[in-house]
Specification:
Strand 4, helix 4 and strand 5 form a beta-alpha-beta unit. The protein has a single domain, classed as Rossmann fold (3-Layer(aba) Sandwich). Helix content is 41%, strand content 18%. Helix 1 packs across helix 6. By secondary structure, it is of the alpha/beta class.
């Protein structure tokens, strides 16, 4: 990840709908179906626009097709595929919140990309995700795999829009790779 492409952008404050963003392979492990079901059940779809940046997982073609069709059925339009990091960064400039409903992750760079852009994150409480989000301070955590808990978080956000700015202000700057390497070198040198 080249962090220089992911600098914070000024976001319009007058938008009627909260802009949600999702980035990930269209695979069941990424939890996209959980997000769509939570939006559908919460009856708050009118409060949100959902932006999807994905790639087709060739091993999960049926899932991919089903999710894309449900996305359109729910009235969402912003589905992008196979875009480069500069285009992703520009797309993220329009987002208010990044949603990471993954059932499991190892080290999600997408959270760092969102934080580098100053975008709060709502993610599952899977350990690798929960370690990166300060719940209630830089976003929210929901119970991994729980449509109901994510639904409740979306309802909360739709009724408390100002919380998004609070979370964004609490996001610490993301360090680039050179800074991280130098910090680690200093640690080893001090052993």
């Amino acid at each position: 990840m080249c962090i220089k492409h992911f600098a914070p952008a000024l976001r319009a404050k007058t938008k009627e709908r909260i802009q949600l963003g999702f980035v990930g392979r269209m695979n069941p492990s990424k939890g996209f179906s959980i997000l769509l079901e939570a939006l559908e059940r919460s009856k708050t779809s009118h409060a949100f626009d959902l932006h999807v940046v994905t790639i087709q997982d060739t091993t999960e073609l049926e899932y991919y097709t089903g999710m894309k069709n449900k996305f359109k059925t729910l009235g969402y339009q912003l589905w992008l595929e196979n875009i480069d990091s500069i285009s992703l960064s520009k797309e993220m400039d329009t987002w208010d919140i990044f949603i990471l409903p993954s059932k499991h992750e190892v080290a999600p760079l997408t959270i760092l990309e969102a934080f580098a852009k100053g975008i709060p994150v709502v993610g599952s409480d899977y350990p690798a995700i929960a370690e990166m989000i300060d719940d209630g301070q830089t976003g929210l955590l929901f119970i991994n795999g729980s449509v109901t808990d994510l639904q409740e978080k979306l309802i909360y956000i739709s009724k408390n829009r100002d919380i998004i700015d609070f979370w964004a202000k609490n996001i610490k700057p993301v360090k680039d790779i050179v800074t991280l390497v130098n910090e680690h070198l200093r640690l080893y040198q001090n052993l």
